[in-house]
């Protein structure tokens, strides 16, 4: 596949002309581009690059930090306590990459009339791929920032203010519905006619999963039953195998190895971001890739060989053994597979010294902390210049970045069914429990009690995978499940945007129509 270099003179809200330049042997503009199907796939590959930056970043985004289940936030505590200095700091979350991808999707669609040597069927295919990506990026913008701009046409030079959440979600659904033209995963092909094996290419099952998440979100913020009905319908199409074949891995160890780990091939994966050595260029890197929020909790035995070090590392998020034991039931296989020797890791703690300061007595102490082991295939530097005679730095945990997997969707359907008063909600819950080695749920089936249990099951199953904050907001549990700062929020502050990120600073450049959301406008300096 030939390489292309896409240069986007992108400014937020398209306050000036955006231009695409393709560099091959000759410099051409998009006016004489679109001459082959490969040109369309190259644009999608550029969009895939933006997906990686948003859904598999090196750094955990701020809302994922707020939602991470831990006892001590370390350097990230300010995000958990709504500290404005953190949210407006140098690493302020930004939506520019989202709108860059949306621009590319719009550009492809607007230039369909230029397509040459491409059948209508294949043109529809690539337009559907682009619309899935556009729906995905807009949906992520809504979940993180709430009100935001609706991108104009690619030739527009006008400044634009924010659109309402309702208008944005209408656009999300419109784009997702266009993407419903995609085939099932088994029938995906690339520009050369070869079978697609990457789960980053959208398929019919991926689109219905997106729609299930969109409608569940709309149900959560509006309380309208019709959205839960729609979410349940779309989830069922995927779970029941009507839009492609998906299944749970047989046990938690297989889930770790095949779905989340280095195996990378799993019937449980619905949508994932491709991560591999060839694309990452890790040889000169010494930085750890924190692709999942849960990797903030990674410690012994991967980042240190001495579990005692965590006792004095106040900069790092940590979680106690007692917290994890309270979360999971005895006999749950996830206690064994997600956590490294939970409640067994210890070290020799000095208790007496001689006059020269030499330790003469010590006692074995079991660490109070839980050590994450959900991702456990290490990638370390092999570059002598980086290692420099010391330990090879940990660069990543091997595996793709899974965005959606079947267990996630089954539990989302369980939540929908609980809200709809459907008895089958328990069946979905039990399917995930049974895979983890547990008996059927025997607690209350009152809709609200069952919904709370399903929320906790999502915490257990999807620990650290980046869904907890959005689960909390969708269920309205932020006052009880997040920090004291969220518990203290008034209804008016929530209405004013406290649960969203502040509008990024560069969104105001050359754009007099942009406004900060009310909650953060009173707190920015």
From TrEMBL:
Keywords: Cell outer membrane, Membrane, Signal
InterPro entries cross-referenced by the UniProt entry: SusD_RagB_dom, TPR-like_helical_dom_sf
Domain RagB/SusD: 302-520
GO cellular component, one term: cell outer membrane
Pfam families: SusD_RagB
Cellular localisation: Cell outer membrane
Domain of life (superkingdom): Bacteria
Gene3D superfamilies: 1.25.40.390
Family of this protein: Belongs to the SusD family.
Protein's name in the database: RagB/SusD domain-containing protein
Organism listed in the record: Sanguibacteroides justesenii
Lineage, top ranks: Bacteria, Pseudomonadati, Bacteroidota, Bacteroidia, Bacteroidales
């Amino acid at each position: 596949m030939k390489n292309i270099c896409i240069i986007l003179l992108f400014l937020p809200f398209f306050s000036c002309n955006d231009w695409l330049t393709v560099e091959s042997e000759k410099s051409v503009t998009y006016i004489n581009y679109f001459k082959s199907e490969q040109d369309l796939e190259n644009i999608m590959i550029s969009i895939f690059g933006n997906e990686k930056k948003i859904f598999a970043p090196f750094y955990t985004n701020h809302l994922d930090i707020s939602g991470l289940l831990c006892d001590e936030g370390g350097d990230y505590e300010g995000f958990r306590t709504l500290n404005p200095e953190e949210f407006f700091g140098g690493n302020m979350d930004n939506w520019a990459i989202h709108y860059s991808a949306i621009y590319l999707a719009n550009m492809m669609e607007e230039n369909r009339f230029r397509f040459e040597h491409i059948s209508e069927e294949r043109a529809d295919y690539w337009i559907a791929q682009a619309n899935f990506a556009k729906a995905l990026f807009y949906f992520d913008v809504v979940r993180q920032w709430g009100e935001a701009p609706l991108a104009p046409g690619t030739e527009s030079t006008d400044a634009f203010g924010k659109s309402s959440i309702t208008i944005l979600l209408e656009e999300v659904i419109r784009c997702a519905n266009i993407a419903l033209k995609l085939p099932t995963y088994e029938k995906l092909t690339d520009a050369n006619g070869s079978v697609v094996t990457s789960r980053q290419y959208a398929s019919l099952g991926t689109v219905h999963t997106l729609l299930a998440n969109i409608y569940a979100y709309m149900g959560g913020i509006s309380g309208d039953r019709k959205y839960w009905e729609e979410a349940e319908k779309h989830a069922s199409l995927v779970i029941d195998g009507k839009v492609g074949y998906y299944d749970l891995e047989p046990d938690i160890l297989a889930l770790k190895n095949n779905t989340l780990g280095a195996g990378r091939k799993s019937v449980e994966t619905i949508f994932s971001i491709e991560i591999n050595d060839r694309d990452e260029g890790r040889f000169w890197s010494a930085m750890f890739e924190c692709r999942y929020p849960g990797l903030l909790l990674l410690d012994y035995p991967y980042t240190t060989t001495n579990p005692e070090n965590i006792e004095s590392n106040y900069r790092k998020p940590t979680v106690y053994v007692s917290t994890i034991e309270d979360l999971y039931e005895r006999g749950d296989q996830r206690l064994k597979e997600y956590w490294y020797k939970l409640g067994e890791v210890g070290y020799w703690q000095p208790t007496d010294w001689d006059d020269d300061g030499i330790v003469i007595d010590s006692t074995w102490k079991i660490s109070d902390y839980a050590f994450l082991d959900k991702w456990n295939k290490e990638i370390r530097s092999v570059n002598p210049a980086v290692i420099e005679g010391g330990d090879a730095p940990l660069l990543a945990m091997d595996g793709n970045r899974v965005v959606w997997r079947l267990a996630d969707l089954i539990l989302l359907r369980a939540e929908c069914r609980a809200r709809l008063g459907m008895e089958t909600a328990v069946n979905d819950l039990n399917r995930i429990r049974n895979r983890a080695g547990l008996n059927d749920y025997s607690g209350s089936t009152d809709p609200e009690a069952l919904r709370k249990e399903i929320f906790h099951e999502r915490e257990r199953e999807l620990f650290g995978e980046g869904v907890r904050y959005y689960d909390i907001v969708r269920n309205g549990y932020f006052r009880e499940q997040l920090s004291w700062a969220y518990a203290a929020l008034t209804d008016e502050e929530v209405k004013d945007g406290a649960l969203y990120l502040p509008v990024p600073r560069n969104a105001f450049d050359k754009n007099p129509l942009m406004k900060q959301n009310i909650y953060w406008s009173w707190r920015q300096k």
